[in-house]
Design brief:
InterPro entries: CoA-transferase_III_domain, CoA-Trfase_fam_III, CoA-Trfase_III_dom3_sf, CoA-Trfase_III_dom_1_sf. One of its GO terms (molecular function) is CoA-transferase activity. Keywords: Transferase. This is Crotonobetainyl-CoA:carnitine CoA-transferase CaiB. By secondary structure, the chain is α/β, with parallel strands linked by helices. It has 2 domains: 267 residues, Rossmann fold (3-Layer(aba) Sandwich), CATH 3.40.50; 71 residues, no CATH class. 37% of the residues lie in helices and 15% in strands. It has 17 helices and 12 strands. Strands 6-5-4-1-2-3-12 form a 7-stranded mixed β-sheet, sandwiched between helices. A 3-stranded antiparallel β-sheet has the order 7-8-9, with helices on one face. α7 crosses α8. The two termini are 26 Å apart. The mean pLDDT is 96.
């Protein structure tokens, strides 16, 4: 019984951001019904990294646990009527259709709120539901490039570098999740449902609260240096440095203390809050040269006891085997009926009385169609008629 037990979510989203937001609600106990086409949601057919899985690829598997699948053709009258019937008992409806598609399908906010005034309707888009970019593709890398963030790191003579994860998708997912929870809290107080709009461009822009305020309020230009500094608005040294055997990160170290440890006398008379900007490239270059003299572990052993902020640079194997990750229980493992033993990132929020759990893995297409329709009051004969018409699909069990 998770903290959102009793909340029913109709997840009509595809790809990453929407399904990830809905999965977070499912992890907390909500009954998430994944409403997908009878051929399966798009992500089922687009495996990231080529990890196709047995029956369910890893992309879909990772974003759709704790959900039940209802496979329905919304283009058929019977399918659309079925969804509208389910809306009557739903708490949250989540979609990330391109602008205009929800209205064409007859599942826009105005239509659904008339059926259920208490409904929380979460609409996700790439750039907003209207405006000059409304029809542009809302893809993670494209939004990263438009966010300005890429120009805050690296060196001025090299191409901007994207983040090493699907950053905009993840941030948008959490923004939608936050909006849904806030709207549910409002409804708890007032009984009133509402529409919640989230777009990827605003999500990735607004998390840069400090950086953009430094630019707009502080009037500080976003200037990349000659050396590959990790952030244009953080003083040197700040970045990733090669060591004798791998890499290490250094963040905002005390210059005098760092200079003593790496045997760089130039740092001795520098002021952290002024000279670290004036001599940003020089500080980075001198640090870079000196750090190649020892291994990462040797530097960590020197720096950490005297409060020089530093850390190793991990690959995924290092992450999975890290002792703090293991201590935190960051990953969860469970058995899936078609994919076997699954190990995947778990739950970032810990509740003392209502912990999140994996109650079911990602469903097969239409795995729960019959179960969902029966619970919605459909008779066996009605379900058989829907299956025969092609309006819905039931996975072979």
């Amino acid at each position: 019984m998770g903290i959102l037990s009793g909340i029913r979510v109709l997840d009509c989203s595809i790809a990453m951001a929407g399904p990830f937001a809905a999965q977070r609600m499912g992890d907390m106990g909500a009954d998430v019904i994944k409403v997908e086409p009878t051929t399966g949601e798009w992500q089922r057919h687009a495996p990231a990294g080529g990890a196709s899985g047995n029956e369910i690829n890893v992309s879909f598997l990772s974003l759709n646990r704790n959900k039940r699948s209802l496979a329905v053709d919304l283009k058929l009258p019977e399918g659309k009527a079925l969804l509208l019937d389910l809306v009557k008992s739903a708490d949250v409806f989540l979609q990330n259709y391109r602008p205009g598609v929800a209205a064409r399908l007859g599942v826009d906010y105005e239509t659904l709120s008339a059926i259920n005034p208490k409904l929380i309707y979460v609409s996700m888009s790439g750039y907003g539901e209207d405006g000059p970019y409304k029809n542009y593709p809302g893809q993670d890398l494209l939004l990263q490039s438009m966010s300005g963030a890429m120009m805050s790191a690296g060196s001025k003579d090299t191409p901007p570098s994207p983040a090493g994860q699907y950053l905009v998708d993840a941030i948008t997912a959490y923004t939608a999740f936050e909006g849904a929870l806030a709207a549910l809290f409002h409804r708890e107080r007032t009984g009133e449902g509402q529409k919640v709009e989230v777009n990827m461009l605003d999500a990735i822009t607004t998390i840069q609260m400090q950086e953009l305020s430094v630019f707009t309020v502080g009037k500080k230009p976003q200037t990349r240096s000659v050396e590959p500094h990790a952030h244009s608005y953080i003083r040197a040294p700040y970045g990733v440095f090669k060591t004798k055997d791998s890499y290490i990160t250094i963040a905002m170290a005390n210059l005098k203390k760092l200079g003593e440890l790496i045997n760089e006398p130039f740092f001795a008379d520098l002021e952290d809050q002024t000279d670290s900007w004036t001599y940003r490239d020089e500080i980075y270059a001198m640090t870079r040269i000196k750090l190649e003299e020892r291994t990462t572990q040797e530097w960590l052993d020197l720096f950490r006891p005297v409060d020089i902020w530093c850390g190793p640079v991990y690959g995924y194997e290092d992450v999975v085997n890290d002792p703090q990750i293991k201590h935190n229980g960051t990953f969860v493992e469970y058995d899936h009926p078609t994919e076997g033993r699954v190990k995947t990132p778990g739950f970032p929020i810990k509740f003392s009385k209502t912990p999140s759990t994996v109650d079911r893995g990602a469903p097969r297409v239409g795995e729960h169609t019959r179960e969902i329709l029966s619970a919605a009051g459909k008779s066996d004969a009605e379900i058989e008629a829907l299956l025969a018409s092609g309006a819905v699909k039931q996975a072979n069990v």
